[in-house]
Amino acid sequence: MTSRSPAATSFGTRLFVALFAVVVGCAVSAWLVASALAPGIFHDHLGQAGIDHNSSQAAHVEEAFTRAIILAWGLAIAIAVLLASVVSWYIARRIQRSLDTVTTSTAQIAGGRYDTRVPSPELGHEFDELAASFNELARRLEATETTRRRMLADLGHEMRTPIATLDSYLEALEDGVRSFDDDTRQILRGATHRLSRLAQDITAVSRAEEHITRITPVPTTTGTLVTTAVGAVREQYDGKGVALHVDVAESAPVTVDPDRLGQVLANLLDNALRHTPEGGTVTVATCMLDRARTEITVADTGSGISSDHLDHLFDRFYRADTARDRNHGGTGIGLTIARALVEAHDGRIRAYSAGPGRGARFTLELPTARQA
Hints:
Blueprint: H1 11-48, H2 56-110, H3 125-158, H4 160-175, H5 182-209, E1 218-221, H6 222-240, E2 243-247, E3 253-256, H7 258-275, E4 281-288, E5 293-300, H8 307-310, H9 326-329, H10 334-344, E6 348-352, E7 360-367
Helix pairs in contact: 1-2, 3-5, 4-5, 5-10, 6-7, 7-10
């Protein structure tokens, strides 16, 4: 049988041994100091009391003192060592248990279980911060792994249709069933364009969800954001005959990336235009919720959204309007990117609708410049 090396001893055991050695060392030191100083002090007091050091009375008193000091010090040191040992064992056990939890959790994460979390050891704020940092690391790894899995699943699902289109038309060209005319060329280019757009969207949403997208905040106002976004789409709205109203009376200062928030507003305005018929109205407004939060709202009088779809609007590749084809309805990823960008600004985005045919309202809630 091989002996266990010191390096293989657990941290808790070594900590307990170290604390026990310190306690014993302190007790021995106290005993040695008392043994060295007490006799001299005792004899000085005997002399001051007029008792001869060589008398039988002095010998009796000295023997009584020696027994009393030995009994008192021995009992005190034994109790102190016992209490200190119990406390040291408890502390070492608590710390060892916490370290074992972290070690086990680390091994589980290394094995792919990213949902593992470490409970707070309640040993002080340093250990609580360690547990919180570990849990945040695990959460980010879980989010990254979830993004990777979703991206692979999304790619497999979304690429199936354009690849099938390309394959069927190429096979038809080889068999002579179809000729390479303008219609065939347009369909093939449409399939390749969709694959290209899909690749770009997948990259964009993955970066946005993992906060890799570069955010460059600058001071601006919600009114400026709305005015810029509305100006970019005004011509499209006029071309379709949809009224676009703007209300920036309660513009608020914010510190955001104008390009990224402009991307979010452009997506919402594009969605509102696509789902609002000719003669409808889209209203963009800003308002202050309180001193810390401000809000931008994009509301339309369009086709509306069923309550069954509201909770899934921001899921990747989700389309509330299944009757709309993909060429007109997009890839179903714009709202996902919008949510990721808004959350990267410490904000949130929500959707409301009273039901089909009753319009929809999207709300962006952002921190004001004082809280950003």
